[in-house]
Amino acid sequence: DTGVSQDPRHKITKRGQNVTFRCDPISEHNRLYWYRQTLGQGPEFLTYFQNEAQLEKSRLLSDRFSAERPKGSFSTLEIQRTEQGDSAMYLCASSSPPNTDTQYFGPGTRLTVL
Amino acid sequence: AQTVTQSQPEMSVQEAETVTLSCTYDTSESDYYLFWYKQPPSRQMILVIRQEAYKQQNATENRFSVNFQKAAKSFSLKISDSQLGDAAMYFCAWGGTSYGKLTFGQGTILTVHP
Asked: Residues of A with CB below 8 A from B46's CB?
């Protein structure tokens, strides 16, 4: 049973560029979550999917952010027109019944916007 | 809205000793879950322990145990026989039965001295 994987692990981009991150959940986990974590802080919820349906989006998820999970397996998180304030660790987690409350996290993608 | 507060930004413990990390939360929900996650430096978040609010019995996982006081909305983590590998940032988190997301505290950095 492999864990949650995320790609890339690190991304450096220039302000104004678009970036896309990928998350592969634990096999057969039907829920997938995205969080953002800034240095020294706890993760903040961005959005989550149950299968392919996006069930909740945080107000942190501005119009420049979009997430998809087209086939209910992997998910992508895209940030358009990146800003320096977007620099953070982007964490993905997944969960499944019967304990859908228990989330397992991936290693994260660290984004640096120059 | 739910809030989670960890009032100890940093804690330290001698190897083989016991340390307790504090967490308080606020919610109007009656049924929920509480978690402690460990995040070693530059490594991914790992689930340490999970508590179901409707269970009065405190959860235990090997050297890790919790003191769950529902009326006081308190959820502390006790680490017994501390090991060097326990050094990490520890996050307390709240999850609701009808919510997808976890709400995290600010974290406590634990240092273990040999």
From this structure: 105
